Structures
1.
Amino acid sequence: MTYILKIKKSLTRSICNIKQIIIFLTDGCKSRGECMKNLSPKSTIYGVDFSGSKEACKKIWVCESVPTDKGLLVKDCWNLEKKCEKKYEEKCGNPCDKPFEILTEFIASNPQAIFGLDFPFGLPECLLCKNNWESFVKRFHEQYKDPDQFYNDSHSRVEKEPKRLTDIDAKSPMSPIFIHLHKQTYYGISNVLYSLNFENFASIHPIQPLEESKPWVIEICPASTLKFENLYRSYKKKGKKAKESKNNRKFILQGLIDKKLITDISPEARESAVVDKEGD
């Protein structure tokens, strides 16, 4: 699992890489300005490979790591269904019916952690009607009833699929309204960020001030991190390309270890990272 920290001046800007996140956490925020000097670093990083599909509970994967000054210690990797089924069965019935509620509750219940979520936290400037991020999220939640409405409305307002400035800077592969990403954008903003923000469950960094008593939530983009580290190779192809993709996943994982971005990884997490054909 790879991680990216989104440093935001507006609703559209900008992204840093995995090394900066490790420094950000292991240095205890002491070099980040007066407002952050008294904050303690978070003890755990959860990287969330998000999904907006009909089988989101099976396709949302979570990677648990501990930040150290020698890199990430990767402890575990699981999908939302496998990890949370027993815990949420009594409360939610079939947990796969409410994957975004489960994810939101999991985030809220871990104030010692920082969460990287793999979906856009905003839209390109040409599609924004609000100057304030909180107002944007509220309007987005109220305006669009489903991903199709969001997709159709967005494309009716632009000729091409625009990217945010942060996408251009970080070489993110897709626009937030791209056909293969718009469901992640929709459910991520409307279901996850909306609840985290308006229930006051988390600090959405760097849009909001960080609060030590809450989990910190950042936007991540695995493809951008791999490009920054010169490790990007196609790793999701199936069929005749499946073996090549599996070998590429092995190459990427070993590359992260060789670059000392990962200091150690559990056998179970290593197996999950290599075997999972669709994950990041």
Note: Residues 1-16, 30-36 have pLDDT under 50 and may be disordered.
2.
Amino acid sequence: MSGTGSAGPGTARPRLAATRQDRRALAVMTIAHGIQHFYVAGLAVTYPFVVAQFHVSYAVLGLWLAAAGLLGGLLQAAAGLLRRASARAVLTAQDVAMGATAMLGAAAPGFALFGSARILGALVSWPQHPVGSAYLSERFPHRRATALSWHTAGGSLGTVAVPVLMSAVVATAGWRWALIALGAAATYWWETKPAPGTVAALEGTRSRYFRSQWRGGWLCASPWIIGFFVFRLFPTAMSLYNSLTHFSVLQVPRFAWFINYIARVHEPLFWTSAFNTLSR
């Protein structure tokens, strides 16, 4: 195997973090990833209490979470549009904003504001994966896989740790205080980011890392992409198409446009069912 990520015969394998700055940079990115996962998973602990207090259904909560996930995913996909943005500045802004949205959710008097805070959280928590991974890949080109493994491990540890810690705060002080503690943890972490001189600038899709690794990235992402199109997007599109037709398994569908929807709206139990679904 050849390339910058491997050593030739008789060549000593380079150390992962040869200097203090390298060790600090790797530790900061690993812990920052854990904090980001801690934030996302910590919110999930509060959902049952939010549903009970605001008297909403899990269906409504699911719609807000789906919107948050969609927006966050689109922003991660657009990370390549960044050009020479400082990794420190981007991740510092992420952590401060995550803390602010968690505290906004804690102070929410109703579900609409809580849901809005959750969507705002998705809008600000997206940089960690693309920015952190790109930064570590550029900083540790000879031990890229190991550096990214540490980064991934930090996120996993954050996900594992949050249920115990958040559940303890919820049990003793309530879900609002749990969100405040979550926001304080995320906001405080930005102070430990490396100084600007120890964090390299992040290039976008034209950097050496993205130019050399995009094929492997698409290959690794292909199972999810295929699954999304086959099991999510295609069934959703077919359901929408069939809803606009007179459909029978034994006959060719005939377009009816919005007749089916109009007929449902005029049914006596439609509004009762809709109210019950959205209010429980």
Note: The two ends are 58 Å apart (CA to CA).
